[in-house]
Amino acid sequence: MSQDRSILNNPNSNDSSPNDLDADHLSEYADQSEPAGLLKAEKLTWAVDGKTILDDLSFSVGSGEFVGVIGPNGAGKSSLLRCLYRKNQLTSGMVEFAEQSLNDYTMRGLAQKIAVVLQEPPTRFELSVADVIRMGLTPNKPLLSFDTLDDQKAVEEAAEQVELSDKLEQEFNSLSGGEKQRAMIARAILQAPELLLMDEPTNHLDVRHQIEVLELARSLNISVIVSIHDLNLAAAYCDRLILLNRGRIVAQGAPELVLTKQQIQQVFEVNVHVDQHPFNRKLRITYDLGGEKHGR
Amino acid sequence: MEDRIQFRLKADKAQQGFTSRFSLFSVAAVLLLVFSALLATGMGSVNLSLSEVLNSLLYCRNDLNDNCLVDPISRQIVWDIRLPRILMALITGAGLSVTGAILQSVTRNPLADPYLFGISSGASLGAVIVMAVVSTAMVSITMGALIGGAFSVLLMLVLAGRAAVQVERLLLSGVAVSFMLSAFTSLILYYSNPETAATLLFWMMGSFSNSQWNELWLPTGTLLVGVSLFFIYRRWLIAVQAGDESALTLGIPVNRLRLSMLIVCSAITAVLVAHVGGIGFVGLMIPHISRFIVGAQIHRILFMSLMLGGSFMIWVDVIARSLLKHQVLPVGIVTSAVGSFFFFVILKHRTRLR
């Protein structure tokens, strides 16, 4: 019903006006202003037990883009990432990766394209750091194959890239939070992915390690989608932001467009002041801690 | 820069050190297994020297060899009595240990062991039904136990249903099946005569006494198939140790992998239990000891479990048949007694190291 009406109201929706960036026309614009859509979600909806967690999300991520997903707790950030690495099966809508539906990939094929760094990687047994990093080889190696010297070298190089060379033989569990995240990034590097998904990689880390992890992710020069709580870090590191609230996209685009005083106040329910950061010329969000309006 | 190179060298050395340490341990473990088998062949109510054992093993398979220097009775002891028994002990120990190692890593539960699915109670029920209800003339106890073991696994999978993808629920339904089948066993025992009860009790405690050459094929074959599968899927098995979701992102069908591994392990266990009875604790203990020695890499643990499990069980059998004069102790008793003591020592040692 509602669909019919929208077509009636919008005469352009059926013929291809130049402003419509649908799948067929995207490639034409690819080398112009818009970055080529590496990942495209259209009307992505995910419901569990009849409760809609993610509602009608449409967005795209270009190759090489660093995209932040922000929003309050329970907004659906992790659920969204899970949909992208197919832990969650979409209820409706679709996600395309490299112009192919996500569901058309084999599990292994997807793991060759998309690497994931999860929040708190749990281990029970005494895996060494090298063991954990070496897991990144799994999607790219046939089952019946031995690790070659090249593989060993790749592990060492990945470890060097994340500055864990001296800790390869240590127990993974003995690493600090930041080092664990870096080891997981090294594992992702070995997967040689085109897209890296990171679920709140800066949680539980001190400031220095938060910056370190994000710098590292940026230095990989691949597309990254990262869910993140710290709005200042998000503004500083992300090319584009997707602001979620209650499973819906409130705003998306450049940090300046998303992190406006009004939108932050509406979504996070805190008073803020937004201005330019004196050092890096990016956005600076200052929270109103005075508690005059929102105080107790 | 120099620091970097130093680091690199150190890391390389550490890597080499670790690898060569593993090679050293593997050679030691293989030697241990071979010597255990040889020494155990010589030990028993008739003691044979190592040279006699070697001579009869090498030259006395049939009587007609001129190089055979051992008298016919010793030859018969070695070939017809001790060797099949020792091989059965070896395969049992290796099989239970290796299944324990796999189950502990796919369920990520350090308490998982081969009897997880109530296989031993299923096998006991099968055995007791054959003994008390059917008749050993029609179906052998081994066959009954095998059917019982398989039945328990099926029952557990059916009862778990869709919940089978969750480890905890699977384990819980395994426990439930175990108690359910034990109840039936007890019921049948309650109404059967004392001899049947005694036979079943002895069977349940495990024994290698009746091992024959022709009984070795099924356990050996099953174990070989299982170990090959474990070896083929070792990359996936390692990755699962870091968590389900993490393994999923590496492209591993975690639930399917776990379920198939559980079924393979159950098959190995069911076949072993059917042949030698319920021998506990090896499957729990040896993987932990192996992990302690060679680290967490699954193929190393598997290899070490095979070797150590085999050697351990050979010595358990030696103790079982030589501790008391003219009497064979049930293997299960010796395993649990020796095993738990040994385990305490390791645990203490390990705690002190930390």
Automatic annotation (TrEMBL), chain B:
Gene3D superfamilies assigned: ABC transporter involved in vitamin B12 uptake, BtuC (1.10.3470.10)
Top-level taxon: Bacteria
Keyword Transferase in annotation: no
Family: Belongs to the binding-protein-dependent transport system permease family. FecCD subfamily.
Cross-referenced PANTHER family: FERRIC ENTEROBACTIN TRANSPORT SYSTEM PERMEASE PROTEIN, PERMEASE OF ABC TRANSPORTER-RELATED
Organism encoding this protein: Aliikangiella coralliicola
Cellular localisation: Cell membrane
Full protein name: Iron ABC transporter permease
InterPro entries: ABC_BtuC-like (IPR037294), ABC_transptr_permease_BtuC (IPR000522)
GO molecular function, one term: transmembrane transporter activity
Topological category with respect to the lipid bilayer: Multi-pass membrane protein
GO cellular component entries: plasma membrane
